[in-house]
Design goal:
The complex is a heterodimer of chains A (about 230) and B (about 150). With about 230 residues, chain A is mostly helical. Chain A has 10 helices and 3 strands, in the order αβαβαβααααααα. A 3-stranded parallel sheet of chain A has the order 1-2-3, with helices on both faces. Classes of the chains: A mainly alpha (about 230), B alpha/beta (about 150).
Chain lengths: ~230, ~150
């Protein structure tokens, strides 16, 4: 992103770049950069908080008054302690013959549909796997977790893209099940650590690593630190 | 799992460097046309999704609000943008600043690129300058760059 700032300035357009990773914005050194110590995915800091977002913008636009290149930092951090998790209800078992992850995903469908409506589908499933096909996609990862070679499991697309749609399905459903803006990563932690499908995905990721799948095939199934 | 751990994974990546830093003096903000350029891979639903290593850009219509993220990285929180698009793409905030007279006007259209690129040569040589030329044609004076 800071690269674009250099290019645009050279073309005669003034820029202000927001950055969430200090070493990156300081390393690329855009003409005017504001490092905001906010969680990744939230460059304006706080969803649903226009006053805070205006503070960030005011700090950013203030840099337009600089008479030489400048990279500075916003005066407030939003720390992520790594432990906040959505307190989000999960559907009760409905079909005892179905794998718990499949039953769970089916049970979340009404919440997912409400979440799509609430969020205009901004982070919804459907990029490679439509919402109707999410249970079948989860089944592929169940097979891998149970020992099927990953290439024979029937993953309906690039593994990372399929897992992205599954995660988006769950986190969009979660938006409809809570009444506030989730803390950063709280939805992802809920998905990976509380849901049956999250457990399946982590187990499948481990199995693919054990099967010596190419690094990019298993590593990006979840955030990199998992 | 913590945000700092995920950032640490990317901090060691080499930063793109420039021998000189271009620096354009803007007009007064209250007279400037301001656009957002985001690297959050946003696009309208009917536009092509971003593919891996996609160095192109999408034009975002500022009169609409149906922006979806096409970013493939698992290493960002998506619920902030899902809850409030202004967390990544603060178009409502810019509209408010324009109404207050803080900025001259908000551009009618904006741009989105895909961040998390490992090879930036196509952006440096092709789509970056093309985007700059397009912004100039729209009369944009100031760009706010937002990542994801």
């Amino acid at each position: 992103m800071s690269t674009l700032a250099h290019i645009f300035e050279a073309a005669g357009i003034a820029t202000v770049a927001l950055g969430s990773i200090r070493r990156q914005i300081e390393g690329t050194a855009p003409p005017r950069g504001l490092w905001c110590d906010f969680p990744l995915g939230r460059p304006l800091g706080k969803p649903g908080d226009p006053a805070f977002q205006h503070r960030v913008l005011a700090a950013a636009f203030a840099l337009l008054g600089a008479d030489e290149p400048v990279v500075t930092e916003f005066d407030e951090s939003i720390p992520d302690g790594g432990d906040e998790m959505l307190a989000c209800p999960l559907p009760p078992r409905h079909d005892p013959d179905a794998h718990p992850a499949i039953d769970e995903a089916r049970g979340l469908r009404p919440a997912y549909d409400r979440g799509v409506e609430m969020s205009d589908g901004r982070f919804a499933a459907g990029r490679v796997v439509a919402a109707d096909d999410i249970p079948a996609a989860i089944e592929a990862f169940i097979r891998i977790a149970e020992g099927t070679p990953w290439k024979e499991a029937g993953i309906p697309g690039m593994p990372l893209r399929v897992s992205h749609d599954i995660r988006s399905y769950y986190e969009t459903a979660a938006l409809a099940l809570v009444d506030h803006a989730p803390a950063a990563w709280a939805g992802t932690r809920w998905f990976l650590d509380r849901t049956e499908t999250g457990k399946v995905l982590l187990a499948a990721r481990h199995a693919m690593q054990e099967q010596e799948a190419p690094h990019g095939m298993w590593f990006y199934l979840t955030p990199g630190d998992r | 799992m913590a945000d700092s751990d995920i950032k640490a994974l990317t901090e060691a990546l080499p930063a793109e460097t420039f021998e000189t830093t271009a620096f354009t003096a803007p007009p007064s903000l209250s007279e400037a046309t301001v656009a957002i350029v985001t690297t959050a891979s946003l696009h309208h639903p009917e536009q092509d999704d971003f593919q891996a290593m996609d160095a192109g850009y999408r034009v975002l219509d500022g009169s609409r609000r149906d922006y979806v993220t096409g970013h493939w990285s698992p290493n960002f929180d998506g619920t902030g943008f899902a809850y409030d698009m202004n967390t990544v793409f603060p178009l409502d905030r810019l509209d408010e600043l324009a109404e207050q007279g803080v900025i001259g006007r908000v551009a009618d259209q904006h741009l989105a690129y895909a961040g998390n690129q490992f090879d930036l040569s196509a952006i440096r040589l092709d789509s970056g300058p093309a985007g700059a030329a397009w912004l100039k044609e729209q009369g944009v004076d100031v760009v706010l760059l937002t990542p994801v």
